[in-house]
Design brief:
24 strands, about 475 residues, five-stranded mixed sheet, Translation Initiation Factor IF3, homodimer, alpha+beta, 14 helices, twelve-stranded mixed sheet, Rossmann fold
């Protein structure tokens, strides 16, 4: 959409690289004339489609998709006290229809508890209706006053998956929290994004939750990005919105609830985790184009090669791959640059000599070249795409592992953070010591109960007060 | 979600039938606490998913999907004079972020021309970029003051497909209008919904269009429902938003544009056109469950029959069908009623005697019973579902044809409209005569250039003034 002038900054300058890759690879256009609102280019939207198809496939195992209204009447929005406190500064209000002031102000959903739960109160009657597990993928709105960033901090979150479940007991809801964490792990695993799960400290939990489990990824600059949260809501909302059911003994009980969210930050993580100095690197599952065929037609074998390339494309499409053929009138090198920038996992170069040998050159975006047989090309492409996925995964794991460490003192913590690392420390879980840790290091306590295969989280003494503590993740965050 | 108390009104009482079917078949919940906003139940949302997959597949042939912001700053929204006039009374305005008044008011898109075209002005540079063909499927908002109706007249249109194309010349844009009409015909044909295409009179065209082609369906009560529009925008918006390109001679030219919309009214038409006194009838392509298996397990062959039913389900799912098995502890009759209400096209009844004979009873929702061989069941189900689609199509065509006629006088027009018909008359195309027709018959001029295979549209003399006229559709509309 824009002329390819200049070059992509090196990924070492992550912030510049990120801003640049978004338009160079045609993911988001940031020139929309309202702060914090961005436009999905078709290529970016195609990535989004494949990523959200992954997410839907996982959720559809035991949730059902629904759709609730965007506009929430003020009286519903204002019902749950903690929830209001958490959101009131950042809610957009619709006050007029045409030139007429509305009788009841309408909030643009910042999240949909207060839109969905009045309906759940109508839907739930008996224990036989439980559990209820519904989700929706919608646009939500936050009047962000901090610096906005495409895909990361938005005023319109365009792609918010929110799941809302209802259960007979607190324990069943807790089991659902665990289940949704496994879904989240499976989702990010399919995108080759290593995650760290932890339990947010009380002051950072979702407004109206008993507790919040959060999922973070470590970005290239060592900052963590929260890319998913699962909340145990207990009976906070069921009491506010009268979500009750008749149990087996004929008694009315309040239900226990969970909610669970993933936004387009999953795509910010995808781009950031895997890209390199040449551009995007997309795991095949998320790539709008999994393989691009570049016919090399120097001289007289032009028609032969084009016909063979066309046949190759059709064979691969018939086998279920997403494939394009690039016949533009450009130098091959310029085409390679173009598709590498856009993260296409596999390039297939086909010239007269390859054709004569019954082969095609397979160039992985992750950096290896091999010849593969045309006769068995669909099997070979399956194999090579699998190898690319593995290479992407390993690279992301190495990055994540190298940015995690365990430290035992404030000085060591500060040093680790300054090296761009996320550290496990021992903390007594008192707010006072938490404040000391956060203020002295200019970092955040991500959470306790850290779950990561990349770092050990053993208990020790609090690095502030010396009392018994719990393993706690500390990092600088987006 | 609700107890199945009472019975569905007869379809002859269409308005009551429509309101009732929405909750009985679990499509929409109308109890959301804001007028004109409704909730998609999971089953309704699944229908929506299959219908919009059809639409996306058609559009993706030569359009690309994108996503633009919901919020439009006042200064952009107010740029095109005719457009504003058409929408200013029904735009919702966001005026506050938190408790802070916004510096610039933000409109909730009623349609996205003014969100998209400032970006098109940036994207378009040269003739080589043309044509541009993008679409999005989004929620849009209208502050409706008329009576609202689920899926038909909404304050939040949840599922608005809007396509926006840009072309080098007016004629190319005209050709695109025709192409999008063929896409629309193909879309509705896949849903077995007969349509009538006509050119709306000037006073009813899209605000800012050169002309509007509209697509109507005739509902069971004879009223027409507009279920799609394609607009030739000429250079109205390209001049307002500076959407220009350098042509082959190096000159800057204004582009010509089209836009094209289909909303969830397509689902209102689907439900209304095909349903009957027993409930929904879904064409297989749109059915969340295409076949339901009901095992009949009286007596001792219980396990055998259940195992065979399970195998049947797995075979059909493996062949790509959407299938459920109903093993609930209910009488078979109650199960039949349940699935008929929800419009499942095919019921497969499997009992011990069927099993012994290697057969299964196939009951079409359109009303025939035949035994089919288990040995060739996937082929047979393909065939039977095809027959069901055809039966649905024929029924809808008979309905549409019987509600169309040609008349030659005001009296005959009035009589035809009172019989619930849509009539073709001859009209001189002057507003004065148009007003007479509309006022005297309490109906609307749908449009000229009527295209329908179900009624002839020949020219004659205007039924008001007697001067030469053009064939014109007149009907009572939603």
């Amino acid at each position: 959409m824009d002329d390819d002038t200049g070059t992509l900054p090196q990924k070492g300058n992550f912030s510049e690289w990120y801003n640049d890759i978004l338009w160079r690879a045609e993911i988001m256009d940031v020139r929309y004339p309202v702060k914090g609102l961005y436009v999905w280019y078709p290529y970016g939207f195609a990535i989004r489609k494949h990523v959200y198809t992954q997410l839907r496939n996982l959720l559809d195992r035991d949730h059902e998709e629904t759709l609730f209204p965007l506009l929430i009447p003020e009286q519903e929005f204002m019902k749950e006290a903690e929830h209001i406190k958490g959101f009131e500064d950042e809610v957009y209000w619709v006050t007029h229809g045409g030139t007429t002031p509305l009788e009841v102000k309408l909030a643009l959903r910042p999240t949909s508890e207060t839109a969905i739960y009045p309906m759940y109160a109508l839907w739930l009657r008996s224990h036989a209706d439980l559990p209820m597990k519904y989700y929706q993928i919608v646009n939500t709105f936050r009047y962000e006053t901090k610096q906005t960033r495409p895909l990361i901090r938005l005023r319109e979150i365009t792609s918010f998956m929110e799941s809302h479940t209802v259960h007979a007991t607190w324990d069943e809801a807790e089991a659902q929290v665990e289940y949704e964490l496994t879904l989240t792990r499976e989702f990010y695993d399919s995108l080759c994004i290593p995650i760290i799960i932890s339990k947010r400290p009380d002051w950072d939990k979702f407004p109206g939750a008993d507790y919040t489990m959060a999922v973070d990824a470590i970005m290239p600059n060592g900052k963590t990005l929260q890319i998913g949260t699962v909340h145990h809501l207990g009976e906070h909302f069921s009491k506010t919105f009268s979500i009750t059911f008749e149990d087996k003994n004929g008694e009315q009980k309040f239900a226990s609830q969970t909610c669970y969210g993933i936004s387009e930050r999953c795509i910010a993580a995808l781009i950031s985790m895997h890209g390199d100095d040449k551009g995007l690197i997309l795991p095949p599952v998320s790539a709008p184009v999994q393989a691009v065929i570049v016919p090399i037609t120097i001289g007289k074998r032009h028609e032969d090669v084009l016909a063979a390339a066309e046949k190759l494309k059709n064979d691969l499409i018939a086998a279920g791959f997403r494939v394009k053929i690039d016949t533009r009138d450009m130098r091959p090198g310029a085409k390679y640059y173009w598709w590498e920038l856009r993260g296409v996992p596999l390039r297939l170069e086909l010239g007269p000599r390859d054709l004569d040998a019954g082969k095609v050159m397979a160039v992985k975006r992750t950096g290896e070249k091999t010849q593969i047989e045309l006769a068995t090309v669909t099997d070979e492409v399956t194999r090579v795409l699998g190898e690319i996925t593995e290479a992407i995964r390993v690279r992301a794991e190495v990055h994540t592992k190298s940015h995690l460490c365990t430290v035992a003192s404030m000085d060591a913590l500060d040093a680790a953070l300054n090296e761009g690392k996320v550290a496990v420390v021992s903390w007594c879980q008192h707010k006072g010591c938490g404040d000391v840790i956060e203020e002295k290091t200019n970092a955040s306590i991500l959470g306790t109960n850290a779950r990561s295969q990349y770092v050990s989280a053993t208990e020790g003494i609090c690095i502030v007060c010396g009392k018994p503590g719990k393993a706690t993740l500390v990092g600088r965050t987006y």
